[in-house]
């Protein structure tokens, strides 16, 4: 209702219970002053080609049910297009088939014409402002054709100011917009549009973000493995070098000088370790001195304290005491560094006097004597042993480094496997979230049922997705990837094998598909390494492709077919005799999708001519009833030519549009309790009172004659 009047009360009494009258003993709670969490208040169109060119066009909306009516070409659908632009939902149209009617219509509208005869509903200076309430806060969304300026403003007690975030997304401003063409596209063969709607309503963005993050972490770990593999490439060659050096050293050891040689090697390793210990302490002393350089107090800014004042003099004294403490600490730290250096010098001196040092010197002397003996025995290069010993030491160090890298690689591989399982679990969680939403939303819906099949049963969609991952064009390797069934010949290829002869139980079928997916991943990975069972030509292609894309193997391991939907509709809308949607007429398909859209959600819903393709009984049983049931909990804006939707849906706000002076204008706005508004509705939607009464009298006489 608008302002309370006797006429409004009379109309409410005519509507009856559960429509415009609510009894105090009604078991269903009802708060007439409750508002939806999100609703659109107004939309202003300024300087569009056919609207708002001479003066701004402004439409105010009720938080509940709004109807836009008018003849053809009066701008009703344009208001929907303007809303889509203001809410930055152009991508929803771009996701449709490029030849689909709703997309081509929007593309013709969403452009600036270059000439008077060119298509386009915008101008260079077009500005759209959409005002909406979000959790009690008024927001202003601006869409200028130039794309410059502030996009989002918020209003508070002090007025309007730019929002801290200028982002306009469906998560921040949840509004659903559907034209009749979009509704029809939801049930097409690809099902991708409907799945996107389900994801948005089920809020799978969190689960998808987790999946993306898990996949990215897995890809990062696999990248580390590849980097470590590059570093480990010299491991085999190093093993050969070590064996060669060992064989050469064996000549010397077989001359019964092994004890001297081993003693020399052992003392050399001890000496290097002692040197490393001393060097470490020297580095510590240097680090302590560097730290001491940072210990200094900061001066108080000039003029901040007055030393003459007693109370401030005390504070300055405390600060001075702190400065002295810092200075003392700095001295102590420097003294510690000095002590460390002194300890190094003293202990080096002590080390030179130890029995161990004598043993080291003796091992060196014995080794030199051995070298001289070997020279006398005719060894061509007596110094070779020393070089070989040094080479063996270097190779041992390199081997230790590579062993450490190998151990690191093993740990990363193990971590990657754990992360891969997290990717699988994240993918399963997306399915579970979707299924939970469908179960809750359509539990008792008499018009439509939607089942969800994990990892899909649509071979064409799976084929497209797999080809994208492999980088294979659609005209190649059909028998390997997917070749549809022809006559008595079964479908062939990886996709066909994935879906063939699955158990009827969804849970068992899911387990089976997961097992087949893992086997498929392994086969493709082998093929990328040119050792698969697909044939030399396909293996060679994948080998070349994986060499160009190092992460191709990893993306294969994280590839999953998309879930598919099983949509069923009730022929009579009575919750019985559900049939596959593919057997439905255009009207039945539209009814099923409309039943789904109206069955869930609290966000504003904008529908552009939803009655197209629907039978009249479906318009009343489905659209009108659902609007009545939902409008107290969510805002609904409908563009329509059907009087049943406006009148029996009990629209709180009606905008009647017309075309005059080359512009689409709002001829009249108001509620149905206003007589002038009812007459306008009758004129626009029924052809006037006389035409309506004559049609009613003729229909009434025919009914009485039966």
Automatic annotation (TrEMBL):
One of its GO terms (molecular function) is ATP hydrolysis activity. It comes from the Bacteria. This is AAA family ATPase. SUPFAM superfamilies: P-loop containing nucleoside triphosphate hydrolases. Residues 235-287 form a coiled coil. Keywords: Coiled coil. The keyword Membrane does not apply. The keyword Coiled coil applies. Residues 415-646 form the ATPase AAA-type core domain.
């Amino acid at each position: 209702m608008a302002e309370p009047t006797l006429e409004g009360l009379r109309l409410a009494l005519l509507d009856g219970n559960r429509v415009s009258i609510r009894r105090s003993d009604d078991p269903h709670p009802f708060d007439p002053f409750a508002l939806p969490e999100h609703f659109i208040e107004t939309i202003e169109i300024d300087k569009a080609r056919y609207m708002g060119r001479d003066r701004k066009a402004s439409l105010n909306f009720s938080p509940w049910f709004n109807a836009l009516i008018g003849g053809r070409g009066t701008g009703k659908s344009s208001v929907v297009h303007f809303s889509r632009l203001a809410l930055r939902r152009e991508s929803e149209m771009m996701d449709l088939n490029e030849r689909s009617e709703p997309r081509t219509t929007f593309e013709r509208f969403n452009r600036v014409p270059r000439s008077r005869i060119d298509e386009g509903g915008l101008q260079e200076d077009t500005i759209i402002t959409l005002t909406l309430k979000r959790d009690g806060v008024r927001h202003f969304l601006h869409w200028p054709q130039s794309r410059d300026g502030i996009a989002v403003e918020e209003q508070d007690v002090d007025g309007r100011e730019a929002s801290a975030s200028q982002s306009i997304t469906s998560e921040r401003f949840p509004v659903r917009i559907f034209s009749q063409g979009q509704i029809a596209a939801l049930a097409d063969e690809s099902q991708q549009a409907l799945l996107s709607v389900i994801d948005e309503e089920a809020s799978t963005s969190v689960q998808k973000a987790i999946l993306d993050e898990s996949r990215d972490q897995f890809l990062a770990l696999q990248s580390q493995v590849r980097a470590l593999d590059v570093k480990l490439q010299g491991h085999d060659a190093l093993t050969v070098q070590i064996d060669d050096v060992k064989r050469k050293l064996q000549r010397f050891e077989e001359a019964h000088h092994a004890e001297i040689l081993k003693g020399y090697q052992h003392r050399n390793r001890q000496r290097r370790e002692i040197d490393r210990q001393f060097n470490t302490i020297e580095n510590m002393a240097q680090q302590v001195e560097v730290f001491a350089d940072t210990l200094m107090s900061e001066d108080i800014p000039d003029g901040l304290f007055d030393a003459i004042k007693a109370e401030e003099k005390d504070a300055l004294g405390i600060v001075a005491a702190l400065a002295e403490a810092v200075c003392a600490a700095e001295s102590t730290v420097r003294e510690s560094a000095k002590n460390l250096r002194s300890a190094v010098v003293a202990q080096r001196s002590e080390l030179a006097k130890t029995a161990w040092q004598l043993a080291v010197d003796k091992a060196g002397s014995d080794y030199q004597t051995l070298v001289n003996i070997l020279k006398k025995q005719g060894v061509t290069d007596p110094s070779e042993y020393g070089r070989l010993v040094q080479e063996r030491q270097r190779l041992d160090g390199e081997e230790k480094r590579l062993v450490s890298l190998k151990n690191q690689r093993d740990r990363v591989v193990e971590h990657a496997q754990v992360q891969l399982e997290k990717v699988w679990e994240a993918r399963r969680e997306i399915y579970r979230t979707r299924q939970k939403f469908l179960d809750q939303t359509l539990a008792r819906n008499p018009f439509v049922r939607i089942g969800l099949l994990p990892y899909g049963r649509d071979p064409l969609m799976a084929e497209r997705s797999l080809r994208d991952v492999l980088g294979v064009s659609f005209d190649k390797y059909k028998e390997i990837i997917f070749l549809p069934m022809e006559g008595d010949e079964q479908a062939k290829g990886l996709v066909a094998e994935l879906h063939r002869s699955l158990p009827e139980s969804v849970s068992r079928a899911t387990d089976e598909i997961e097992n087949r997916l893992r086997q498929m991943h392994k086969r493709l990975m082998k093929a990328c390494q040119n050792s698969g069972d697909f044939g030399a030509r396909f293996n060679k292609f994948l080998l070349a492709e994986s060499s160009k894309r190092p992460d191709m193997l990893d993306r294969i391991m994280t590839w999953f077919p998309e879930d598919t939907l099983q949509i069923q509709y009730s022929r009579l809308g009575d919750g019985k005799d559900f049939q596959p949607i593919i057997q439905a007429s255009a009207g039945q398909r539209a009814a099923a999708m409309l039943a789904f859209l109206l069955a869930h959600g609290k966000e504003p819903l904008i529908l552009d001519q939803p009655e197209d393709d629907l039978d009249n009984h479906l318009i009343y049983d489905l659209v009108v009833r659902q609007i009545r049931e939902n409008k107290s909990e969510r805002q609904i804006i409908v563009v329509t030519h059907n009087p049943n939707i406006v009148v029996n849906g009990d629209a709180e706000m009606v905008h009647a549009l017309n075309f005059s002076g080359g512009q689409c204008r709002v001829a009249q706005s108001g509620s149905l309790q206003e007589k002038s508004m009812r007459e306008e509705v009758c004129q626009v939607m029924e052809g006037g009172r006389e035409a309506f009464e004559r049609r009613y009298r003729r229909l009434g006489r025919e009914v009485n004659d039966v």
